[in-house]
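Hey,
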Amino acid sequence: MVAKYKAPNAPVISDMTDESTVVTGTTEAGSRVYVKAGTNVIGTGTANSKGTFSITIPKQAVNKKIGVTAKGKGGYSPYTYKTVVSSRPSPPNVNRVRSMTKTVTGTTEAKSIVYIKKGSELIGRGVVDSKGDFNVAIKPQAAKTKISIIIKNPNGKYSPYRTITVG
């Protein structure tokens, strides 16, 4: 009786950001792995004896859909897809700041650093807790003053500014 081969299961792959240059994951040991962006193959490699692979790819744009398939003795696996996400964090969510308030509160990526500026002057700095909440002391500001809040996440990436007007 001749053994029938079965196609590999869909690969399990890492998340990818717009700064990723490697796709890592697992699939059937020894299978050939193909990484596609649209219809273009952007990387190939072979899974090792434990089924892990690491394939170099060019950086991809945010929202680009990447597909990965593996070819074993039984044919091609189903594709696994991931969408490329931004490595830059989103701007923080900031609660309303009233005139003469001594704190700025809000939520953002956990364990980030929050910087609060009035123009180019740094008026507050604090650390986000493990739940994503922050409470940063500032000198009270007059109504209609514009302040800008930015974060630096644990990976060293800065968010865009969130600018608010003191109420």
